[in-house]
Task: structure prediction
Amino acid sequence: MTSIKDKLASSVRQAKAGAEPAPAEKDEKEKAETRKTPRSASATAKTAAAKPAPPQSLAAAPPDSAQELFPDRIWPD
Amino acid sequence: MGGPLVIAVINQKGGAGKTTVAMHLGAGLARRASAVVVDLDPQGSATQWAAAGTQSFPATVKHLRVGAGPVDLRRDFRAYPFVVLDCPPAVESRAAALALQSCDVAVIPVLPSPMDLWASLRLPQDIDEARRLNPRLRAYLLPNQIEARSALSAAMQEALAEFGLPVLRTPVRRRGIYKTAALEGVSAYQLGARGQSAVAEIEGLIEEILA
Ligand SMILES: Nc1ncnc2c1ncn2[C@@H]1O[C@H](COP(=O)(O)OP(=O)(O)O)[C@@H](O)[C@H]1O
Ligand SMILES: [Mg+2]
Result:
């Protein structure tokens, strides 16, 4: 529970630091600290597993599959 | 500031719940005074929602295509005490910029999901920029699709603190009734006992916004 809380908050901090044009000194330090943290084995594995999927696979999919990808969407006719 | 109370429901992320929230704010506000939901999304989901089913939607729903010409939302909808703007999923769009410049209150629905949170991160900056032209703008984050027993839902509060914007105290839960309402072209207010819990949270939300 606590770890998900921390992970989510720090992921947002990290995304924010990456998006900001001129990060404050404190943020810079935080960012550096985050980078130094060794990646967990599972995180590395996830990245590796995600890599082989070619980015074109989505664009190449037939338009019909959009419905399957977003079953919740209300599609205009 | 005279004229209507204009509430923009905005977030560049698609699927955050803008239309669902806008339609329910419109339906709830319509019980207090006449209300219009202005559908600024070219996809027209709010308009389709109002047209679905056989019952009429409790608030007026108008589709507005924002072209290149001048638009004055406050003047155009001054007949309504409450104006809710359902924004397209693109903050760079002219419609969204117009909404932020014309509104009194911006409600930003955010989902308890990392990618949705990351994608919403530029909102505080957009709000800051809009405030230069629209200093009265109040902006709130609204946790949407919150689940009682989900760790991610519970983790939202801390993550949202990073946005530096106030968070509405009443979150919107993930409820099937919101989808049922869209299917039937109504709001939870028209669905009797089935809609009761949803109505309670929407009322809480409206009271916070009107306070
Ligand atoms: N609180 C909620 N509970 C259940 N489903 C929801 C809720 N909010 C949104 N949804 C569903 O999520 C999807 C996206 O919502 P929508 O309001 O269309 O978002 P947006 O307008 O931001 O794209 C829709 O299928 C909608 O029915
Ligand atoms: Mg929408």
User: Anything to note?
Assistant: The first helix of chain B runs from residue 18 to 29. The two ends of chain B are 16 Å apart (CA to CA).
